[in-house]
Write a structure and sequence with these properties.
With about 250 residues, the protein is mainly β. It has one domain: Beta Barrel (Porin). Helices cover about 0% and strands about 55% of the residues. The protein is built from one helix and twelve strands. Strands 1-2-3-4-5-6-7-8-9-10-11-12 form a twelve-stranded antiparallel sheet. The longest helix has 6 residues.
């Protein structure tokens, strides 16, 4: 078992553990909407400040990997990551387990759960008990890529769900890909309504289709061309993106 402390990525599924802030390693330009960073309109506590334990358990039928976090919880608004102190006495506690069966080489399946108490926002709302639980299934073995993840957020009077499915296939240096992102946000949750202090706006239902090409023109660099169709509660439209990424 490995134990360390500091700021890290919360044990919430495959993408949040595999891909951090560098974009070179990820197939797509953007992170899945579900795993958007807190200050980019995300619905999950992507980052934590606390302690983490990780390890592997080798069984006759496969390998189990585990991650556990104990940390400062969410702040009073969605894009606040509490650093030095926690606004309430409750700590965020979460864990994730992934199983890789030897009989299905390359496949991984797992789940996670997180529990926290979001502090009250004086004059706006009381504290909120939060439970997040989810599942992931992925097969990422060259040249194939299949990733599915889904997370549920329980705020007592409001329940929300988000997820994505991503598919890709590599033809030597060229990798075409497709991703479906979806969010279903129940109305009336005061934590997901825009505040004057939060950088992100109100979080809403979303369905997004992404099609793109990832071309590795050298071993340590690639260029991505991407088209997205976004259908959200308040708006819909088309987006085009180009990104050049390097690794050093």
């Amino acid at each position: 078992m490995n134990l360390w402390g500091g700021r890290g990525h919360t044990a919430l599924g495959y993408w949040n553990q595999r891909f951090h802030h560098g974009t070179f390693l990820q197939t797509t330009i953007e992170r899945p909407t579900l795993f958007s960073f807190e200050d980019d309109g995300g619905i999950l506590p992507i980052h934590f400040v606390g302690i983490q334990a990780t390890g592997n358990i080798d069984l006759p039928i496969g390998m189990i990997s585990y991650i556990a976090n104990v940390a400062n919880g969410r702040g009073a608004i969605t894009d606040e990551v509490q650093l030095i102190e926690d606004l309430n006495n409750s700590k965020q506690v979460g864990g994730m387990v992934t199983f890789a069966p030897y009989a299905l080489e390359g496949w991984n399946i797992g789940g996670n759960v997180l529990r926290d108490s979001i502090p009250d926002d004086p004059g706006a709302r009381p504290s909120i008990d939060e439970t997040i639980y989810g599942a992931h299934l992925y097969y990422v073995t060259h040249p194939f890529e299949f990733i599915w993840e889904q997370q549920f957020i329980d705020h007592g009077d409001s329940d929300h769900v988000g997820g994505y499915v991503q598919l890709a296939y590599a033809f030597e240096r060229l990798k075409p890909y497709y991703r479906l992102d979806y969010l279903s946000i129940e109305e009336g949750d005061p934590f997901f309504v825009a505040s004057e202090e939060a950088d992100a706006g109100t979080i809403e239902d979303l369905l997004q289709h992404t099609v793109g090409l990832n071309y590795s023109f050298t071993t340590w660099s690639n260029i991505k061309f991407e088209y997205r169709y976004v259908d959200a509660t308040s708006t819909n439209g088309n987006e085009l993106g180009v990104q050049i990424s390097f690794a050093f």
